[in-house]
Amino acid sequence: MTIQRVKPGDFTKTPVDKTEDPDFGTEMIPKERYTSRDFMQKEWDRLWTKVWNWGCASQDIEEPGDYIVTSLGKEEILLTRQPDGTAKGFYNVCQHRGNRLMMGQGNATTFKCNYHHWEYKLTGEFENIPDIETFPQGAPPCGGLTEVRVEEWNGFVFFCLDPDGESFDDFIHPLKEHLGPYHFDRMVKVTDWTVEWECNWKTSVDAFNESYHVQGIHPELLYFIEDKHLQIDTYEKHNRYLIPFATISHRVNETTEIPHLIKHAMKEAGMDPADFDGRISEIRPALQKWKREHGAEQGLDYSDLNDEQLTDDYHYMIFPNITMNTHADDLMLFRQRPHETDPDKMYFDVQMFKLLKKDEEKPRRKPKNERFKHGERSMGLVIDQDAANLPGVQRGMHSEAYEGLWLGDQELRIRHFHKVLMDYVGED
Amino acid sequence: MELGLKGMKAAVTGGSRGIGKAIAMHLAQEGCDVSICARGEEGIAATRAEIEAEGVRSFGTALQGRDGDAVRGWMRETCDVFGGLDLLVCSLSGGGGTNEEGYWRRSFEIDVMSATRAVDEAYPHLKKSGKGSILVISSMAAAETFVSPMAYNAMKASLVTWSKQLAEQYAPKGIRVNCLEPGPTMFPGSNWEMIKVARSRTYAGVLRQQPTRRMGEVDEIAKSAVFLASPAASWVTGATLRVDGGYTKGVQF
């Protein structure tokens, strides 16, 4: 079954040209990158403290005084909205005795430490130090909280712990052009989960950087996506693949009945599968046409997206740890954070966003960040399948009988990721 | 046992895949000219080639099952091209679905109306045959609660009642009418093949109720169907034969 793709000359704002596949060779990726504490420390020193990190959604800190605390390894970062509308970020630590300053998220007029009530303005400067006259040396000369660089783009807040590092624009290039047409700032967050997983953060990143495992652990998806014949594109730091959705894999036979996930996609768009008399392979282009024709009247603005973006998954990785399943009507974003101390553990953040219809009011309550451990609750069949698999992968990394990752062409994004990783880390 | 099918002219609605195709092929192997209609051009072309490889004539039209004019047109053309008709098997189905209104329309227009329209056009030719026979393919899902309430099961049940009444009316005209209720059947490209992967729990639930722990194969359905439709079953009319490997649990006295 041939999958119809956007052709040169068709409307698109997101670049669709295939990048030339880089030649990274066929060498094994050493497993120690996933298990070694030494490598973990190098990552901290040379990657996490140098790179731009996804911090939160802009809507998490919508109003002046809104704040959210996010963690990265051993550090906690306080992100907050200023009265002038800009976002700022600080290390979340009181300059007095080192106490954690704020927790979770909320709104504040000042940031006050619980311990001795040292108080900071939203701008980070000292607001009040109780009994300041009892400090003969005066207030700390730093003047307040230690600021980190912050940039906001397309509904997301990024931070960088390196005061002198590269600019955000250089870092994110060329994804502004790629992802701008999705207007994530028109979407509203509907799910916010943090799960502790028993694997290295890269074990998780890898799992989402190839679709070769679909025929392994996600067989259901063979009746919803084409899993092998994908376009893989690698850029300077980031990469993507374009996965056709609302179709069936070449690995399975075409049926007469429409598979339930495809039916669901049709119904979501207001198209009745009972009235569709074509073949399964004809649904994807028909659904694209339908959404193009009916989107506006449903209050959904798809005008900046090309036809296949209306059905497909443009699957981006923002280096080093953001996986984005971008769709016309929603975004499923995964953030893979390193553990404080243990290379065999990580935090997996799931944030789902949904496109609001024109004049649709935002839900009054924002979803709360729910934290749990693997297996305590379901995250949906597909993520559960990944989650169930990953601890076994991490365990195997420690085996005497396993040396490293033996990668095929379908796993090119993993090689690309490791290339960029080693550009930062420098050595194993 | 001789089925007496050699030289007969047969038509099978939905004869390009699955049970319908297996019936079409067995009829061809028994020496019938076979005409089919289905949605896909390629499936029709491929099946016609297989039919003709058996040394008999074929005919076929790609059509939408709910297009009444198309179904009638195919039936009339078949009779023209073959110069008559002895056997009609109504096997075309729009497949399962849910309990939503669209699926009631779909099952009615495709499963029920394609059969009634084909019979309507075939009737004068079957009467002329002297050995005319109609076989309506219903489903075991008509006979017992199955999966969930939905249009498919109820529409398949309506075919059972309709074929029984036809049998009584057509018997004096020399046309036998029978009905077949296949149980869950597996073949490459079958809906069960998809359900096995895409909804593995539903599949496992159905398989657990099958005493042999396997689904039927199309040949196992088709051989019963061909017998019922053939002159070898000359004293069988108004019968409903369930071919389900023992899936259904009710007892028919």
TrEMBL record, chain A:
Molecular function (Gene Ontology), one example: 2 iron, 2 sulfur cluster binding
Gene3D superfamilies: Naphthalene 1,2-dioxygenase Alpha Subunit, Chain A, domain 1, Rieske [2Fe-2S] iron-sulphur domain
Domain Rieske positions: 54-159
Biased composition, class Basic and acidic residues, residue ranges: 7-21
Cofactor: Fe cation
Keywords in alphabetical order: 2Fe-2S, Iron, Iron-sulfur, Metal-binding, NAD, Oxidoreductase
Annotated region (Disordered), positions in chain: 1-25
Protein name: Rieske domain-containing protein
Species of the source: Maritimibacter alkaliphilus HTCC2654
TrEMBL record, chain B:
Stored PANTHER family: 3-PHENYLPROPIONATE-DIHYDRODIOL_CINNAMIC ACID-DIHYDRODIOL DEHYDROGENASE (PTHR43943:SF17), DEHYDROGENASE/REDUCTASE (SDR FAMILY) MEMBER 4 (PTHR43943)
UniProt GO MF annotations: oxidoreductase activity
Keyword annotations from UniProtKB, A to Z: Oxidoreductase
Similarity-based family: Belongs to the short-chain dehydrogenases/reductases (SDR) family.
Native species: Maritimibacter alkaliphilus HTCC2654
Domain of life assignment: Bacteria
SUPFAM superfamilies: NAD(P)-binding Rossmann-fold domains
Name of the protein this chain belongs to: Putative 3-ketoacyl-CoA reductase
Residues annotated as signal peptide: none
Keyword Oxidoreductase: yes
InterPro entries: NAD(P)-bd_dom_sf, SDR_fam
